[in-house]
Amino acid sequence: MITHRMEPGKPIKLTELPTGSKEFYQGERETAVAEFEALREEFIELQVRLYAEGRQKLLIIFQAIDAGGKDGAIRHVFKGVNPQGVSVHAFKVPSKLELAHDYLWRVHQVVPPASMIGVFNRSHYEDVLVVRVDNLVPEAVWRLRYHHINEFERLLHETGTTILKFFLHISAAEQAKRFRERLADPSKYWKFALEDLEKRKQWPAYMDAFEDMLNHCTTPWAPWYVIPADQKWYRNLAVMRVIVQTLRQMNPQYPLSQEDLSGVVVV
Ligand code: AMP
Ligand code: MG
Fold first, then answer.
1. Which ligand is nearest to the CA of 66?
2. What is the pLDDT of residues 165-223, one digit of tens each?
3. Which of 9, 66, 105, 159 could form a disulfide with 101 if both were Cys (CB 3.0 to 4.6 A apart)?
4. Considering the domain boundaries, does residue 8 fall inside one?
5. Rounded Cα gap, residues 50 and 44, in angstroms
C-alpha cells in the first residue's frame, strides 16, 4: 500500500512530488470515502483501547502552507474519536513569555502523556519555516534547529511516544482556489488574513524551507509523510490509512484488572 512515507537518508525534491492524487488512487471518490469511513470506525475502536491501556503515547504533527488543509484534516480524521483521549494544540505566534524561553519549551509542555493522542496543528517546525522565511533569527541560529528537533523527537521516541508527521502538499493553483473560496464566502472570512497574500508571494522560499525540513528531519524514529493534498478526500484517506496502520502496530490492549475479580458479585 502507498503510504507516502519518506525514507531516512533519501532526500526528495518537493517540486517532483505530486500534489494531486491521480497517480495514487484510480478508484472513484465514493470508494475512497467508503474506505475512509470504515477506517474511521477502526480508529475509534483503537483509540478507546489506547486510552484504556494507559501506557502508550501517539503524537501526530500537521504542517502545510496556508490553506493546505491542516484544520480540515484534523476535523475529518478525528471526528467521533473520544475527545477525552485527544489533545489538539494549534501553535500561533509565540508569546513574549514563550520567546523568553528556548523554542522547544512551549512544545514539550504539551506533548501527549501516556494513554493520549496529541495532535499538533503547526508545531516546532514553524521555527525552521516562518522563522526562516521571515528572517526572524539569523541563519546560524535556525540551522542548528534541525539537529535539536531530531534529538528532541528522539527523546520523545525513546520515552515511549510514537510520532507521525504529515506534510500536506498542495499546489500554488490549489492554494489560490482555496483563498478565492474564502473570499467569496463570508462564513469563511475568519480563515483568511490579508497577510496570507503576502505569504503567498513567498511561495518559493516556503517550498525551500519545507524541503529542507523534510530532508533534514526524516529519521527512523520520526519520519515525514508527504501527502498529496489537492483533493481533500484523498488527503483524508491517506492520513487515516497511516494512523490506523500505526495504531494496529501499537496494538493497545485493554488492561487486566490488578485485583482478583473472580466471584465478585454486585449487590
Ligand atoms: P493560523 O494557523 O492561521 O491560526 O496562524 C498561526 C500563525 O502563527 C501563522 O502565521 C504561523 O506562521 C505563526 N506562527 C506559528 N508558530 C510560530 C513561530 N514559532 N514563530 C513565528 N510565527 C509562528
Ligand atoms: Mg492562517
1. 2
2. 999 999 999 999 999 999 999 999 999 999 999 999 999 999 999 999 999 999 999 99
3. 105
4. no
5. 10
CA dist 150 and 133 (Å) reads: 20
Cell of 261: 475479580
Q: Quick one: pLDDT band at residue 1, thresholds 50, 70, 90?
A: low
Q: How many domains does the chain have?
A: 1
What is this structure's pTM? Answer: 0.97
**Is the beta carbon of 174 within 6 A of some atom in ligand 1?**
no
Report yes or no on 88 lying in a domain: yes
Rounded to an integer, what distance in angstroms lies between the CA atom of residue 57 and that of residue 118?
8
**Residue 266 falls inside a structural domain:** no
Centre of ligand 1 from the C-alpha of residue 192, in Å:
14
Residue 221 inside a domain? The answer is yes
Identify the domain containing residue 228 by its residue range.
14-250
pLDDT score of 258: 87
Instruction: Please report which residue ranges of the chain form alpha helices under DSSP H.
Output: 29-53, 70-77, 96-99, 105-108, 130-133, 139-158, 172-184, 194-201, 203-216, 232-250
Count CB-CB contacts under 10 A for residue 11: 12
CA distances from 86 to 59, 77, 151, 165, 239 (A): 10, 12, 25, 16, 16
Among 66, 70, 92, the mutation site with the greatest number of ligand 1 atoms within 8 A of its Cβ is: 92
The neighbouring-strand residues paired with 63 are 167
Which domain CATH number covers 70?
A: 3.40.50.300
